[in-house]
Amino acid sequence: MAVNKKRTYNSTSRQQQASETRTKIVSAAEKLLLKYGFNKMTFEAIANESGSAVPTVYANFASKADLVKAVIDHARFGEKYQQALETTLKATNPCDQLRNASRIAASIYSTEAHLLSILQSADALSPELGQFAAELETHRFESQKFVIQRLADADLLRSDLDFEKARDIMWTLTSRDIFRSLVNVRKWTVEQYQDWLADTLVSSLVSPEDLSGGESPPKGSK
Questions:
Q1: How confident is the model over 109-116, as a mean pLDDT?
Q2: Three-state DSSP class for 157?
Q3: What is the rounded average pLDDT of the residues 114-121?
Q4: Is residue 119's pLDDT more than 70?
Q5: Which residues are 157's β-sheet partners?
Q6: Where in the chain is the domain with CATH 1.10.10.60?
Q7: Annotation: CATH topology of 74-213
Q8: Could you say which of 152, 192, 203, 218 has the lowest number of CB atoms within 10 Å?
């Protein structure tokens, strides 16, 4: 039994060490990516920055594109995103879930703001990154399905909308391009964007006579 416990401990310790090493590599890659760009973000530079051996970097990531994907995932799905997602999933009122979608969008886009230019030029950087950007959009579209389904099941959708049209509207309103236009170009605050998006989602999708049925999250909450 002692041997088994020791093996379990060693295995857990190795997994933790491997996870920490991977996190250091991703952090180093993000730093170099933002400072020097994709072309100068070499595996050798990442190894030096993270204090790892070059073979260790290659063992964790097959290509520079894989590293960029890990950097983007780390930025997009951090603590703010997890909190927003948890709040959305816990909401019992479909209108509340719809409004909380603005919190998810705001948390993702504000966190990844420093990487937006990389995502926008993904096709030019690498066909693999272009595909990854397309996959992110597909994931966003699919993940919003349950919110629209809740509205439809509760008979809350506007009478002039069918399920697919409602999904298309939600997907469009929560797009990165709108965030970039309002926050990066027009200089809205993230809180202003979030409040506008919550109100616009509800007014665009929910039947007018049902607009008073949900409890909105506090203005500017993230």
A1: 77
A2: strand
A3: 65
A4: no
A5: 206
A6: 2-61
A7: Tetracycline Repressor; domain 2 (1.10.357)
A8: 218
Q: Distance between CA 68 and CA 61 in Å, rounded?
A: 10
Query: CATH 1.10.357.10 residue ranges in the chain?
Result: 74-213
CATH of domain 2-61: 1.10.10.60
Q: Are 56 and 47 in contact (CB under 8 A)?
A: yes
CA distances from 90 to 69, 84, 93, 97, 104 (A): 29, 10, 9, 8, 14
Say which amino acid occupies 159.
S
Token look-up 């093996």 returns: 7
Burial of 216 (0-12, 13-18, 19+ CB in 10 A): middle
Q: What are phi and psi of 63, to 5 degrees?
A: -155, 170
Amino acid at 181: S
pLDDT at 213: 46
Question: Of 36-40, 78-82, 94-98, 207-211, which one has max mean pLDDT?
Answer: 94-98
What are the start-end ranges of the H helices in the chain? 2-36, 43-50, 54-60, 64-76, 79-90, 94-111, 116-120, 122-125, 127-143, 145-153, 163-173, 176-179, 190-205
Integer Cα distance of 195 and 221 in angstroms: 9
